[in-house]
């Protein structure tokens, strides 16, 4: 090796987060000027929410190699916590009374309540992670499905949040923000949290800690022999994944303006699983692409009503038959198309 090659070090600087933010900024600007209508904005917001949901589940099912099936439950926790805080703090509700804070403060505090919902969902993930330390595969799936049913049944029986009738009033927070300054706030925050979630997952899995999480997928016993604290890794991965699902739930609640426990049943967890396996296990690019494809597919099949839930599982069966590794496998877009690296990375000395 030459002296020059020894002295020179090549440092890659990722530019894709900047590209993501610029793309989101363009979409928000188009929404603010009315260049894209409300329906298209809503579809884009659902894409962003599904990207968070799919990518967060991929941390556990893809990178860590576990088999979680109850992601909808963590989404429910985040949705209800952020919704209650939103109505309690910023709106006039017949259930919770007058707002505690001036409604105009929602412009600044809205992301705080979404993050609080995510933190509470992370604590719920902790409750699932602890009994999962000694379980894998089918047993972990049973635990997470049971957790999903527990969360849904619990909220079904809480009358102060509407029980099975559901909870509403979150649109009042959105209207309060728009009264201060007319702008597509939900589009902005959905794309912001989506970009942040993708960025955090990428940074986590490229870190030394993330390598420890990936080691569990290949061989948990070997990872323990190599001094990887697998219980700690599982704990962090579950909490991180469920926290992001809670953020997705909070955004979903405010986009819809109404939620009920049925919105987060096992069907919602199944949607997350479909997106993960469609995109590819352990592929962040795959999670993003599958969320985009799946959301657009759902909208295209909306006129078919219940029949779409026959066609979509059928498509998943065909995918498992002919391409079981998913669209991307465990690769990223830059692995499939090396020329993209020159656009998403920059070399510096």
UniProtKB/TrEMBL annotation:
Membrane topology recorded in Swiss-Prot or TrEMBL: Multi-pass membrane protein
Superkingdom of source: Bacteria
Protein name: Branched-chain amino acid ABC transporter permease
GO CC, one annotated term: plasma membrane
Cited Pfam families: BPD_transp_2
Transmembrane stretches, start-end: 15-33, 39-60, 72-91, 106-128, 140-163, 183-201, 235-256, 276-298, 305-322
Main localization category: membrane
Keyword terms of this UniProt record: Cell membrane, Membrane, Transmembrane, Transmembrane helix
Subcellular location: Cell membrane
An annotated Gene Ontology molecular function: branched-chain amino acid transmembrane transporter activity
Keyword Transferase: no
The keyword DNA-binding belongs to this UniProt entry's keyword annotation: no
């Amino acid at each position: 090796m030459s002296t020059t090659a020894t002295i020179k070090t090549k440092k890659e600087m990722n530019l894709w987060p900047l590209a993501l933010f610029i793309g989101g900024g363009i979409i928000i600007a188009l929404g603010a000027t009315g260049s894209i209508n409300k329906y298209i904005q809503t579809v884009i917001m659902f894409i962003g929410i599904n990207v968070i949901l799919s990518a967060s589940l991929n941390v556990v099912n893809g990178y860590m190699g576990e088999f979680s099936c109850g992601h909808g439950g963590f989404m429910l926790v985040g949705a209800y916590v952020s919704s209650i805080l939103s109505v309690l703090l910023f709106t006039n509700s017949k259930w919770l009374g007058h707002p505690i804070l001036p409604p105009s403060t929602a412009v600044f505090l809205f992301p705080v309540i979404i993050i609080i919902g995510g933190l509470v969902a992370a604590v719920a993930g902790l409750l699932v992670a602890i009994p999962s330390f000694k379980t894998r595969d089918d047993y972990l799936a049973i635990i997470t499905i049971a957790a999903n049913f527990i969360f849904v049944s619990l909220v079904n029986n809480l009358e102060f949040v509407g029980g099975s009738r559901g909870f509403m009033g979150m649109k009042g927070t959105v209207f309060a923000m728009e009264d201060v300054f007319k702008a597509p706030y939900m589009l902005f925050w959905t794309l912001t949290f989506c970009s942040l979630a993708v960025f955090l997952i990428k940074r986590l899995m490229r870190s030394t800690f993330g390598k420890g999480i990936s080691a569990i997928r290949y061989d948990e016993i070997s990872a323990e022999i190599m001094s990887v604290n697998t219980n700690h890794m599982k704990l962090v991965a579950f909490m991180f994944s469920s926290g992001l699902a809670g953020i997705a739930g909070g955004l979903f609640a405010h986009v819809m303006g109404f939620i009920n426990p049925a919105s987060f049943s096992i069907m919602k967890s199944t949607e997350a699983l479909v997106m993960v396996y469609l995109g590819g296990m352990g592929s962040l690019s795959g999670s993003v692409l599958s969320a985009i494809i799946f959301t657009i597919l759902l909208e295209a099949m909306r006129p078919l009503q219940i029949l779409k839930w026959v066609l979509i599982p059928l498509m998943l069966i065909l995918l498992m038959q002919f391409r079981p590794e998913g669209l991307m496998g465990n690769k990223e877009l830059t692995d499939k198309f090396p020329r993209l690296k020159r656009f998403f990375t920059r070399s510096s000395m």
